[in-house]
Amino acid sequence: MKVLVTGGNGQLGRCLQDRLQYTDYEWQAPDQSNLDITDRSAIATYFKIFQPDIVINAAAYTAVDKAESDQENAYLVNATAPGYLAESCQTAAIPLIHISTDYVFDGTATVPYKVSDQTNPQSVYGSTKLVGEQIVQSTLSEHIIIRTAWVFSEYGNNFVKTMLRLANFHPVLKIVGDQYGCPTYAGDLADVILKMVMQVQFGQKLWGLYHYCGDQITSWHGFARAIFDEAKRQGIIDNIPQLRVINTDEYPVAAQRPQYSVLDCQLSFENYHVEIANWRKALTRVINKI
User: Which CDD domains match (predicted)?
Assistant: First the structure.
């Protein structure tokens, strides 16, 4: 079985590669320089040469604030490109696994979002990701869309790495405490995706929309506290910065974030024997690797 992973240099792409090397699959995970997914003809040519049996789209425009002033490129990567991938998958009669985000919701809920809940993105990033979902759904019947949230890993740029870097220079840090979500280790998400690939390979029809995130709700302040506690325990930092809780309106950014973006994952995966991962255990492993 041939697996094509787009966005090979991203957090999820790197974690998928780490796991694919221990499988029997033939796989490729090109970065943008090797496969420009915003180029329809480039995708068609790549498909013709590699002839994948399934595609995992882990590529995305994730610069949330920059997207507010770079709408054209955000739309191209998050909406147009998934459509091109879906078209080529439709032509080749193969499935597509596409990764989306909690930012498709407005964050006004008080209970975890189900896949059936009304979307209402409040940012360019969220809006373009939602359009990407819709294009994939309308183009290709054999699709799996997985919304996730607060992704971290040992790779790329993410909240964990930012906090560890800031700890070296700032004795006091102001962290938002009124936004709530569930941190998700990209490696755990990669495990789930490959488990679904295996199930698809053996004939299970898993098509549709899913939610997957970490198992425990926290705030950014709570996440930062967990990061520093673990880093101190492992001897990565000598002293834990003093953490001050601030509200969202005290930390102005270009793009509006969902204040509550907890995803209901249990209903999504209860039929496929996928367990929601403990992000605190994953955090221990990630900090050790960093």
Answer: dTDP_HR_like_SDR_e
Mean pLDDT by 10 residues, the chain (290 residues): 97 98 97 95 97 98 97 98 98 98 97 96 98 98 97 96 92 96 98 94 92 96 98 93 95 93 81 82 95
CA distances to 43, 49, 65, 218 from 77, in Å: 13, 23, 15, 30
Complete DSSP assignment for 210-258: EE---SS-EEHHHHHHHHHHHHHHTTS-SSPPEEEEE-GGGS--SSPPP
The pLDDT, as a whole number, for residue 267 is 65
Instruction: Indicate which residue of 84, 103, 125, 212 is catalytic.
Output: 125
Q: What pLDDT is recorded for position 276? A: 85
Residue 29 confidence (pLDDT) = 98
Tally: H helices and E strands in the chain: 11, 12
The CATH number of domain 2-158+183-215+262-279, selected from 3.40.50.720, 3.30.360.10, 1.20.120.910, 3.20.20.150? 3.40.50.720
Q: Are 167 and 237 in contact (CB under 8 A)?
A: yes
What whole-number distance in Å separates Cα of residue 106 and Cα of residue 117?
A: 11
Residue 22 annotated among the catalytic residues of the structure = no
d(C-alpha 216, C-alpha 282), whole Å: 12
Q: Give the predicted TM-score (pTM) of the model.
A: 0.96
In angstroms, what is the C-alpha Rg of the chain?
19
Q: Of 235, 237, 218, which is closest to residue 280 (Cα–Cα)?
A: 218
CA gap 287, 290 in Å, rounded: 5
200 token code pair: 């698809």
